[in-house]
């Protein structure tokens, strides 16, 4: 059996996963090639249904690939699953694992037992982790009484209980408020920098999160990796275009109306800027050059849309995504068959 | 020990840290049994309402049988049969719902993913469920026997205490072995297996000889003894507990003990094979991560 090259934490070769579904099978992963060096924080960025979760489930040994190979720390996900399970852990967003009747401390201790922590060592580790993630006040509270943010901190502590070498993070800040999400991201950074060689694979559809956390990012859509590089490298791909963000009170016909104008390369709705009125529409525009903006403004005036704000913006990973995929992250893809996969 | 709160142990390489010897594998699985048993024991101590639902309500069924037997002027031993059956039923219900169905529920909550990504065998998780469940079931059984015996003045007559103990333990091993086998079915069939458990419940009440000797079932008794550890075990326990009542057993208790040994081996072996097989199938078909299919 060939081993992967030293220093590579995660490797996938021609990885393919097809789900049986009606009326037709669904290809969730379509020939993914990937190599994540040890010590890297690697991001998978893509919309729902892109194949991110499928990839993470294969790497965490929960799902078998239909074809191709995948290795974690040099171990094959099919034939050496038990060795992988000893050195990795996974934290998912919105996870409700465990038993609500237990206290926070007891729940973590229970999970520690699954990794062979001795009873006394387990309780000690549990208390350290509870303090680390800031759940000290909830230590003796029932798990069922935790808020969403506290619950996710508990999940994070569970993910760290075995001191994993490789951490799989599946939308770990899903549903968290800004402050809780920032805290969770800080923990990931600190965890990784504590021991050289620790690796994390993060799936997210929050562009800013990937930009902030990841050394490299792969943009995934419909089971394929469309682009891979550092956030800076990826953003340089769209630097040649002029990017603007406009806010209008209404936009009859949606952003597609603007997308058809001469010189407009793409127009997609995006999240409103902080403090913007909630009833408006925010559109990210990629223009061939600044001159095309005049046409946009004229079109808005003709459509009786009141321009509330206009700003030239630096490219973001979302712009990269739009250029590669042709639609925004939150814009629906063509209808797909239902599978058990969430992403 | 590292100074960082994010690093607890000495940092070896992933290859070294994943190379576990058999001792560590065994120790981890034993700890997993303790870990999985913990919420059951702790939960039953914390939420006392189960005493009403799990003991007081089932005891009403026992009372109903006792009243029917008394109304029919049945031999007094039948009162004892009803109390004994009501007690042993606790273990069967625990196997049916708290092992098979629990795995189904665990999948819905996302716990199954955690069990499978941890470096342990699913058998350890199921054993943990069994050990934890035994605590509650044994309490229920003991209290039903105590209440029934006091309330209805049941007279026991035990000549072979050792054989009674052996048969009781073998019954539990065979029952929980069957439970593990059923859990693997739940893992694979999901909702359909849920219905399967419902399907099992009433026929087993009928064939298990819970409230009367299985001898009264005629030819069906052979079928019950052939497939149901509950029926074999209870028949033997009944004979050994009421040794002064003649001719109530389907087979001699010694023979039934041998059948229980064979059942224990068969169910545990089949459960191990089935769990391995269904885990592979479930990984292949993506069923471990399907929350509600």
Task: Describe the model.
The complex is a heterodimer of chains A (343) and B (293). Chain A is α/β, with parallel strands linked by helices. Chain A folds into three domains: 8-87 and 164-234, 3-Layer(aba) Sandwich (Rossmann fold); 99-159, no CATH class; 237-325, Alpha-Beta Plaits. Chain A has helices spanning 52-59, 81-85, 104-113, 119-132, 148-160, 178-194, 207-213, 231-236, 255-259, 292-302, 317-325, and strands at 8-19, 26-37, 41-45, 67-72, 75-76, 88-92, 166-170, 199-204, 216-221, 224-229, 242-248, 264-269, 281-287, 307-312. A six-stranded mixed sheet of chain A has the order 6-7-8-3-9-10, sandwiched between helices. In chain A, strands 2-1-4-5 form a four-stranded antiparallel sheet. In chain A, strands 12-13-11-14 form a four-stranded antiparallel sheet, sandwiched between helices. In chain A, a hairpin with a 2-residue loop joins strand 4 (67-72) and strand 5 (75-76). In chain A, helix 3 crosses helix 4 (119-132) and helix 5 runs parallel beside helix 6 (178-194). The longest helix of chain A has 17 residues, at 178-194. Chain B is mostly helical and 293 residues long. Chain B has one domain. Helix content of chain B is 76%, strand content 0%. Chain B contains eleven helices and no strands. Chain B has helices spanning 14-17, 22-46, 49-71, 77-109, 111-117, 122-152, 161-189, 191-207, 220-227, 229-241, 253-285. In chain B, helix 2 (22-46) runs parallel beside helix 6 (122-152) and helix 7 (161-189) runs antiparallel to helix 10 (229-241). Chain B is elongated. In chain B, 45% of the residues are buried. Chains A and B meet through helix 2, strand 6, helix 3, helix 4 and helix 6 of A and helix 1, helix 2, helix 5 and helix 11 of B.
